[in-house]
Amino acid sequence: MVRQPIPVIIVAGFLGSGKTSLLNHLLRNPQGARIGVVVNDFGQINIDALSVAGQVDSSVSLSNGCLCCAVDPSGLDDLLAKLARPSSDIDLIVIESSGLADPRTMVRLLLGSTNPRLGYGGLVEVVDAAEFDRTRQRHPELDQHLRFADLVLLNKTDRVSEGDRDRLLELVRELAGGRPVLPTAHGRIDPALLFDRESVRQRRETARQLTFDDLVTDDHDDCHEHLHAAYQSVEFTADEPVHPRALMRFLDTRPAGVYRMKGQVHFGVPGHEQKFTLHTVGDFLRFQRSRWARAEPRRTQLVVIGSGLDRDRIREDLHACLGRPDEADEHSMLDVLKFIRS
């Protein structure tokens, strides 16, 4: 089984927006995943709660396998290569960008990586609901950051009135230009938004006693249900082949609120009958080609994840992508092949 690239997520936002709260929440609720973290200053990371096993130079090794490293962005690729080495057994890497840094620089560095073990996991922009209007006045570039993000968290909504919360949600969604926007408090989101929890579970599921992760998790069932209610997922399965050009049109004009898409696609085009694994985050798109298992049915199975999704429209649009191209239309696969990552 070929291991999927490790998703690398960039968390950006101006000072005080709640990036560290989000990071601490993920570290305390890893859902069985081993998380590597790159930060500019790990003094505020809740390391004590995670039982520090040791500290060497700019990195610490935590009992749940996390690594926290303070680095300059210029050395990002080298650092990520260390975190992504097979012996680290990392499932997810989170980069906490400086509050004054341009997140686009971090994204360009990440997308320029040639490390096949790394994959783009998205840019998450955290904004402070209580200070949003004042922050926007001091930093007018915030509007651009919102449009560039793959997911926006309107954080600290517990510190504003319900009327202000609704007003800010509408405004931020308008500024974000169709990007999914989630209201949060204390940076609490369901980690399943950021990585494929099921694949992590399958990799790590063994007969075992309770681990430190099990004991430290602070999300009770009712809290988890509340977090999950903030976003939606849409499942789509089809035995009929998908027309590659139709699917690419869907991906180019995907509905508002879509954050991630993942799954396998069966095109059934002569000469291209392999399994194509699809991964999207925001506007980022990648296909990975592999062989079908001997008894594996040739079918398309996709999951669309986001906020405020029109489920019926998404299913209708995906269903409209079905149809086998004729042999004369094999060139339509070129639209897909340019996004292949071996």
Automatic annotation (TrEMBL):
<comment type="similarity">
    <text>Belongs to the SIMIBI class G3E GTPase family. ZNG1 subfamily.</text>
</comment>
<protein>
    <submittedName>
        <fullName>G3E family GTPase</fullName>
    </submittedName>
</protein>
<dbReference type="InterPro" id="IPR027417">
    <property type="entry name" value="P-loop_NTPase"/>
</dbReference>
<keyword id="KW-0547">Nucleotide-binding</keyword>
<dbReference type="Pfam" id="PF02492">
    <property type="entry name" value="cobW"/>
</dbReference>
<keyword id="KW-0378">Hydrolase</keyword>
<dbReference type="GO" id="GO:0016787">
    <property type="term" value="F:hydrolase activity"/>
</dbReference>
<dbReference type="GO" id="GO:0000166">
    <property type="term" value="F:nucleotide binding"/>
</dbReference>
<dbReference type="InterPro" id="IPR051316">
    <property type="entry name" value="Zinc-reg_GTPase_activator"/>
</dbReference>
<dbReference type="InterPro" id="IPR036627">
    <property type="entry name" value="CobW-likC_sf"/>
</dbReference>
<dbReference type="Pfam" id="PF07683">
    <property type="entry name" value="CobW_C"/>
</dbReference>
<dbReference type="GO" id="GO:0005737">
    <property type="term" value="C:cytoplasm"/>
</dbReference>
<dbReference type="InterPro" id="IPR011629">
    <property type="entry name" value="CobW-like_C"/>
</dbReference>
<dbReference type="InterPro" id="IPR003495">
    <property type="entry name" value="CobW/HypB/UreG_nucleotide-bd"/>
</dbReference>
<keyword id="KW-0143">Chaperone</keyword>
<feature type="domain" description="CobW C-terminal">
    <location>
        <begin position="231"/>
        <end position="322"/>
    </location>
</feature>
